[in-house]
Amino acid sequence: MHPFAAIARRSLVLLTAAFVMASALLAIELAGPDALHAQSALAPRVGRLLLATEGMGDPRFRQTVILLVRHDKGGTMGLVLNRPMVDIPYRLPSLLADKLDLLYHGGPVNAFTPTALLQSDTPPPQATRVTGNVYLVGLGPVADHLAEDPRPDERLRVYMGSAGWAPGQLAGEIARGAWQVVPGSRQDVFDPDPNGLWERLIETGKIITI
């Protein structure tokens, strides 16, 4: 190839790359800050909430509020906070048989497997901190909690099933606008009116910048 032809080709490549970059920056600027926020919401974290948007296409998650309890290279797990049970499921551990007020539909994955969130200033050794003094616990600590008089600092909710995503799946759903990411707190987890939680958070929620 003639030296001048090689130089011309390299120049064309550089000009094309510069044009593409400038076009992308212009598109973001014209879209405004909401576009920047949408881009930055692709990294959810444990303790944050997912709010289903009007773009949620899966009816199982319509108007749900999900607390993220695990997010790592293996995928993501969350618990639906605003689906209190109205009937006792038939595959319920006996220790929960008369505890309907504590029971929630946690999600469609392993729908008969209970997981609990415990608010406590003195959590059990096997507990996993989620946010503040709220911990993810198994049935052992739940049984201990129910067998004793609860301390003033303790509250408990039990979730049958969970929501789960493969690696990268949740990021894709957020990018498509199905979820909004907002901060989570123990007040959200133990909200006295879980049925109205989604509406309240949607009204006040702000997309997190990472």
Return the CATH class of the largest domain. Alpha Beta
Largest sheet, if any? Answer: 9 strands, mixed
Outline the low-pLDDT stretches. Answer: 10-42
Number of domains: 2
CATH superfamily heading of the largest domain: VC0467-like
Taken in chain order, the helices and strands follow as: HHEEEEEEEHEHEHH
Q: Which CATH architecture of the largest domain would you pick?
A: 3-Layer(aba) Sandwich
Principal-axis shape equals: globular
- The helical percent reads 25-40%
The total count of helices amounts to 6
* Rg from Cα: 23 Å
Strand element count: 9
Give the helix/strand class: alpha+beta
Strand content bin: 25-35%
Summarize the structure.
The protein has 210 residues and is α+β, with helices and mostly antiparallel strands. It is built from six helices and nine strands.
Report on this model:
The protein has 210 residues and is of the alpha+beta class. The chain folds into 2 domains: 3-31; 40-116 and 160-204, VC0467-like (3-Layer(aba) Sandwich). The chain is built from 6 helices and 9 strands, in the order ααβββββββαβαβαα. Residues 10-42 have low confidence and may be disordered.
List the topology elements.
Elements (H helix, E strand, L loop, with lengths): L2 H29 L1 H8 L8 E4 L12 E8 L2 E6 L22 E3 L3 E11 L8 E4 L2 E4 L1 H9 L7 E11 L3 H7 L3 E4 L3 H4 L7 H8 L6
Parallel strand pairs: 4-8
Antiparallel strand pairs: 1-2, 1-9, 2-3, 3-8, 5-7, 5-8, 6-7
